[in-house]
Amino acid sequence: YCVLCRNNPTTAVKRKLQEPQRVCEMDFLRNLFSSTLGLGSPDKVLDELTLEGVAQYIKSGKCKNILCMVGAGISTSAGIPDFRSPGTGLYANLQKYNLPYPEAIFQIDYFKKHPEPFFALARELYPGQFKPTVCHYFIKLLKDKGLLRRCYSQNIDTLERVAGLEGDDLIEAHGTFYTSHCVSFCCRAEYNLDWMKEKIFSDDIPKCDKCNSLVKPDIVFFGENLPVRFFTSMKMDFPRCDLLIVMGTSLQVQPFAGLVGRVSKSCPRLLINMEKAGQADPLLGLLGFGGGMDFDSDKAYRDVAHISTCDDGCLALADLLGWKVLFLLFPRPFNLFYSKLSPYPATQTEFPDINA
């Protein structure tokens, strides 16, 4: 106990750690009552609900805690299919695996009985065969500028890490190939990326060296819980967010989709996607599912939809921010791709000093 105020310091620390959760819960309740009763006058942070308005807000210096939420759409230009696009999406091209339904390939119960389809697909999509996209490097650029608080990703391709994000920058909401574990509750032995890669590319079904049970990469299947870190970080990050950028996701899978509703009521939200997403029906919006993003109504005040590919949207935003030249600092294969899209000179020596 403190000798002056007689307070228990442990209790004080616990209260401090609980503050973000209480703030988040209060924001949710405030949004619920104000939406239901028509009360409250939300602060309008953006001068205009356009990509230009978002850029001006970032340049104002008031935006210091950006959160990114990304899905499979940010990796399609790398050659990795998304899940739900008609005709080209992953679920539309799984006939060769003779599945009872497309989603079964990621169902934990089906996997334990029939692991062969998943590991055959894993050979095709295994990390290390693809390169990061413009969008991945734009997120890295946000980090380098000191603006990125965290990136929440639905992807399992690890391209965020390849682009330069580190473990603390990233919440891999649907897991990762970086580690694998035995599926037996009595064992749970851990294996690294190299061990799993050797098994997958030798056409072996990975079996535990200790108990001979299946070994599964630490990606989240339907029927499994999301990583604990997803929930603990969510409670800390979203109440502090001052700009949410959502890219390449249909916002259909919970609980990830519901994150858009966890930012404060005044926090601007930018969607860069091929179509609008996250527009929940009024009842689900009130309950906090889907986020209830509002791009078009007379009451819209903070949500911006930029309809384009994720790469084009990131390039457009970088242009507006005056960051185009910084892309030359990234690996040369990316520089060559970017130089084709840029009206500026293609060699780094022809650019002005970026620190000037």
TrEMBL record:
* EC main group: transferase
Does Zinc count among this protein's keywords? yes
Per the record, the domain of life is Eukaryota
Question: Entry's Pfam families?
Answer: SIR2
In this chain, Zn(2+) is annotated as bound at 182, 187, 208, 211
The EC number(s) attached to this protein equal 2.3.1.286
Q: Name one GO molecular function term.
A: NAD+ binding
Gene3D superfamilies linked: SIR2/SIRT2 'Small Domain (3.30.1600.10), TPP-binding domain (3.40.50.1220)
- Active site, per annotation: 174 (proton acceptor)
Q: Which reaction does it catalyse?
A: N(6)-tetradecanoyl-L-lysyl-[protein] + NAD(+) + H2O = 2''-O-tetradecanoyl-ADP-D-ribose + nicotinamide + L-lysyl-[protein]; N(6)-hexadecanoyl-L-lysyl-[protein] + NAD(+) + H2O = 2''-O-hexadecanoyl-ADP-D-ribose + nicotinamide + L-lysyl-[protein]
Looking at the record, the residues that make up the Deacetylase sirtuin-type domain are 44-324
Q: Output the Gene Ontology cellular-component terms.
A: nucleus
Localized where?
A: Nucleus
Keyword set, alphabetical order: Metal-binding, NAD, Nucleus, Transferase, Zinc
- Which Gene Ontology terms describe the biological processes this protein takes part in? regulation of developmental process; regulation of multicellular organismal process
- Cofactor names: Zn(2+)
| Annotated InterPro entries | DHS-like_NAD/FAD-binding_dom, NAD-dep_sirtuin_deacylases, Sirtuin, Sirtuin_cat_small_dom_sf, Ssirtuin_cat_dom
Q: Which family does it belong to?
A: Belongs to the sirtuin family. Class I subfamily.
Name the chain's protein. NAD-dependent protein deacetylase sirtuin-2
* Organism for this UniProt entry: Sparus aurata
Gene encoding the protein: SIRT2
